[in-house]
């Protein structure tokens, strides 16, 4: 065989022996065409309780498939399930996908905490439950919840309890310019108006401990305590008020009860997130200098929104309300 110079060789003349484990991995994921949709109604120690097709009578336990990695799955998420979805005792399905979220309620522990906590996903509206007395209203908390709603795509509703102890007029006047819907309740009157607002929709409730949130839930979901026990018993352990839980309404729809919170941090929210919820100010705000917080005055003297202070009373009121929410996000509003 004649000698060949190595410079005349190419890759086709050399036999390469593949090493162990050199087979390329396919990046294609299984399509799971047989997956069924379900609503996540509670989370308990690495297990997700899910209602198949949103049916409260078809609750199954599921684990997160390995292929999802650390993809967060929270109450209110719509997920895709495979495996045993019969719901029989001892069975376990797998969550193989999470549908895009229509809304998300986030908070941080405080305004310096970079870690976001997704409280609820997929809710259409958030009821901010506040007592009119005992304990007195905390407007700073309400403002922060409103900010979280505007940033997360939820419709806010003020739900004022204990109207038998104090009148709601002063508190409602504070939010009149924002046109936030409100529901007034008291212990000695039916909650028909509230039930009508919730029926057929996915709603979340948030509030401080002691404002009567649990009492409301028990009134609108007559067997709330029983259902809470049943849902929790599907997984391991019992439900305690440290995580959210979705409860079905008698007339259709779901109400998501969240645990009482001490603080509502907004470290993840930017001024633009809030301004975008005010159409009349969103476009002019784009002309503001870089880094403008839109607070006006000494804080942002060159803010473009200053020119609206000469507008009609309704617009001025909306601007002041917007700036109050921005101040709340900055931690400068009274809690």
Helix fraction?
10-25%
CATH homologous superfamily caption of the largest domain: P-loop containing nucleotide triphosphate hydrolases
User: Span between N and C termini?
Assistant: 90 Å
CATH class of the largest domain: Alpha Beta
- Tally of DSSP helical segments: 8
Shape: globular
CATH topology of the largest domain: Rossmann fold
Order of helices and strands: EEEEEEEEHEHEHEHHEEHHH
Question: Based on helices, strands and strand pairing, what is the structural class?
Answer: alpha/beta
As residue ranges, the low-confidence spans are 231-241
Task: Name the CATH architecture of the largest domain.
Answer: 3-Layer(aba) Sandwich
Number of domains: 3
Largest sheet: 6 strands, mixed
Strand order of the largest sheet: 10-9-8-11-13-12
Average pLDDT across residues? 85
Taken as a percent bin, the fraction of beta residues is: 15-25%
Number-wise, the strands total 13
Instruction: Work out the radius of gyration.
Output: 26 Å
């Amino acid at each position: 065989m004649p000698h060949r110079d190595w410079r005349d060789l190419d890759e086709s003349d050399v036999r390469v022996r593949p090493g162990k484990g050199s087979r390329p991995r396919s990046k294609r994921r299984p399509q799971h065409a047989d997956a069924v949709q379900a609503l996540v109604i509670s989370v308990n120690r690495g297990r997700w309780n899910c209602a198949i097709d949103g049916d409260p009578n078809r609750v199954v336990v599921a684990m997160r498939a390995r292929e999802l990695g650390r993809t967060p799955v929270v109450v209110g998420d719509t997920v895709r399930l495979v495996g045993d979805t019969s719901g029989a005792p001892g069975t376990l399905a797998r969550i193989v996908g999470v549908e895009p979220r229509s809304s998300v309620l986030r908070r941080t522990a405080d305004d310096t905490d970079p870690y976001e906590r997704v409280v609820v996903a997929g809710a259409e509206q958030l009821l901010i439950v506040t007592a009119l007395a005992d304990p007195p209203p905390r407007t700073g908390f309400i403002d922060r919840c409103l900010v979280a709603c505007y940033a997360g795509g939820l419709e806010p509703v003020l739900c004022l309890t204990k109207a038998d102890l104090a009148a709601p007029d002063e508190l409602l006047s504070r939010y009149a310019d924002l046109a936030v819907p409100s529901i007034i309740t008291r212990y000695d009157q039916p909650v028909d108006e509230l039930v009508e607002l919730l029926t057929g929709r996915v709603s979340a409730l948030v509030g401080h401990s002691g404002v009567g949130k649990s009492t409301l839930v028990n009134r609108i979901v007559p067997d709330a305590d029983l259902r809470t026990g049943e849902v929790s018993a599907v997984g391991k352990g019992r439900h305690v008020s440290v995580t959210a839980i979705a409860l079905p309404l008698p007339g259709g729809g779901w109400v998501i009860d969240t645990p009482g919170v001490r603080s509502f941090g907004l470290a993840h929210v930017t001024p633009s997130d809030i301004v975008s919820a005010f159409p009349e100010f969103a476009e002019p705000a784009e002309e503001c200098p870089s880094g403008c917080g839109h607070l006006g005055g000494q804080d942002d003297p060159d803010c473009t929104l200053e020119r609206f202070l000469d507008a009609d009373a309704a617009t001025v009121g909306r601007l002041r309300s917007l700036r109050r929410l921005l101040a709340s996000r900055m931690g400068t509003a009274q809690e």
